[in-house]
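As a warm-up, study this chain.
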Amino acid sequence: MGELSSARAASAALKAEASEERARVSRSFFKTGPGQYGEGDRFLGVTVPATRAIAKRAHALGEPELEKLLASPWHEERLLALLVLVRRYERAQDQEKQAVCAFYRRHFAAVNNWDLVDLSAWQILGRELRVHARGDTVPRELLTLADSSVLWERRIAMVSTFAWIKEGQARPALVLAARLLGDREDLMHKAVGWMLREVGKRVSREDLQAFLQDHAHAMPRTALRYAIEHFDAEARCRWLERGRSALRRAP
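Now compare it with the structure written out below.
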């Protein structure tokens, strides 16, 4: 299988792997109906492993060709472009990494479903910000994104903290989790809970428990459940009961 040198060729490669049955399932799974978070998103029906394989063949696509893919109404074409960028960032030297991240920032609008965020945010933006941050200081850019009215920008902020978690630093995730506890979107509850769970698994169970001590009473149910998934059954029940007790006391 040869190298793909244009957006058109990359699109053709994706369509060769497409399945209408997978597309139908994806439209339901990613909530593309009226009023849902993925309203209007279109799917070819290509698996992520197949998309990753095509991304390897499209590794040399220039920015104009990547922009064509990012502007596509097809979910998998946007994902393909993002996977190329992740791969490029991982293999780049310092100055090129900055350029890749700058390009990524300019196209946040194309990172508009949860998998697109999760497969690119910490791998590009998170890593770049962590490299240039002082210790575990929370970059202002993440705080700004966390306050955005755009759901996907808030999720980019939260998921980007995984770059610190993977290096044993919990503070950015804890700061953003506290900032986002009042978010009304279930997808943000899941993102907050996911990052908190990873803090407990990868960095410090004590840090997570301290956060729960301060915030469990105010956490959305989904976020709390995600955060304590790796606790034993007795501990999970204890924290969930604390959350229920707080709800019962609420006026």
